[in-house]
Amino acid sequence: MTEQTRTLGTVSPLTVSSMGLGCMGMSEFYGAPDEASGIETIHRALDLGITFIDTADMYGPFTNEKLVGRAISGRRDEVQLATKFGNVRGENGERLGINGSPEYVRSACDASLARLGVDHIDLYYQHRVDPKVPIEDTVGAMAELVQAGKVRHLGLSEASPQTIRRAHAVHPITALQTEYSLFTRDLEDEILPTIRELGIGLVPYSPLGRGILTGRITAESLSKDGDSRSSRYFPRFQGEALEENLRLVDQIKAIAEQKGVTPGQIALAWVLAQGDDVVPIPGTKRVKYLEENAAARDIRLSDEDREALEEAVPRGAVVGSRYGDMSSIDQG
After folding, report:
1. Could you tell me whether strands 151-157 and 173-179 are parallel, antiparallel, or unpaired per DSSP bridges?
2. In a domain, 259, yes or no
3. pTM of the model as a whole
4. Where is the NADP-dependent oxidoreductase domain (predicted)?
5. Bridge partners of 175?
6. Residue 176, exposed/middle/buried by CB under 10 A (0-12, 13-18, 19+)?
């Protein structure tokens, strides 16, 4: 059995399970929500030693934190709980922009604590950087939450190297959450070297490329109601781009078959092999997929395996941007 924990951050370290669980899809975006299955999946995750649980106030909106709160009730001391603020939504799901103002930071945290039913959040992320508010002001307010005991550690999501440096100068940043997988590797150029220089851990979301790396996605499977991947917001899942990208997945399938594992497992093993400061958070709302993902912790990739995977999916080979609108991703 592989080592089951990893430590995010060196200045403000947080020890978490070596793989986390992203809970977003239990409430929204990837087909119909399924609360009962979601709670069952979280319980099974904890039993398997996957105790780093990731949610956000915007998921649902607001319902995913409540689901997570119910699921971890009675087992709070086992959990490293992460949530996020900053992507503002209304009760009907409307998107109201990004808010990083100190007043909003404080009110969002109190609301998340209430929905989660907990007295503190282990890792509190700014979900998206607000270009209208200096990062120093936002992180300053987040630091006050640490001093108040409401939050233990701070994180950023989708922040540029410059923003990360400015934030870390105000209060130690424990982790950066951003997209990273065999299909998304642009952070290797500047972001990864920056966070390693500063001693900040990496939490990759969508380490399975929003599910495409599992080998289970087809144009037909995306056509079900409520799957946001079929929208123009995700160019990699559209028409000819999807066809080209599925051809890349076929090559991963072949490598996985040779090792006797699934494509998703070998894709997660590749992310886990990028360093002990990397903790992916694949999301699922089904116990069987959770168990499949969890088994990736025990897969050992040789240098040859890693080279074969990186040759199968060369950087730049994936067709389409990761989002149709990249304006909310901090570029500066």
Report:
1. parallel
2. no
3. 0.95
4. 19-312
5. 155, 201
6. buried
Pull the structure tokens for residue 38: 């979601």
CB-based contact 69:37 (threshold 8 Å): no
Residue 182 half-sphere exposure toward CB, CA atoms < 13 A: 32
- Any domain includes 246: no
- Could you give the residue numbers annotated as active site? 59
CATH number at residue 37: 3.20.20.100
**Residues near 276 by Cβ (< 8 Å), separated by ≥ 6?**
6, 7
40-84 pLDDT, tens per residue? 999 999 999 999 999 999 999 999 999 999 999 999 999 999 999
Pairing of strands 87-89, 95-98: antiparallel
Residue 279 in domain: yes
Cα three-residue angle 51-41-2, rounded to 5 degrees: 45
Q: Is the Cβ–Cβ distance between 253 and 312 less than 8 Å? A: no
In sequence order, what are the residues at sequence separation of 6 or more whose Cβ sits closer than 8 angstroms to the Cβ of residue 91? 61, 62
- Which amino acid appears at position 70 of this protein? R
When divided into structural domains, the chain yields a total of: 1
Work out the angle at residue 286's Cα, subtended by the Cα atoms of residues 285 and 290, and round it to the nearest 5 degrees.
100
CA–CA distance, 302 with 174 (Å, rounded to integer)? 29
Residue 307 lies in a domain: no
Decide: helix, strand or coil at residue 254. helix
In the chain, which ranges are E strands? 5-8, 14-17, 20-22, 52-54, 80-85, 87-89, 95-98, 121-126, 151-157, 173-179, 201-205
Q: How many CB atoms lie within 10 A of CB 230?
A: 17
Q: SS3 for 227?
A: strand
pLDDT, tens digit (0-9, with 9 covering 90-100), for 272-325? 999 999 999 999 999 999 999 999 999 999 999 999 999 999 998 998 888 777
Alpha carbon 329 to its chain centroid, in Å, reads: 15
The parent domain of residue 288 ranges over: 7-211+273-299
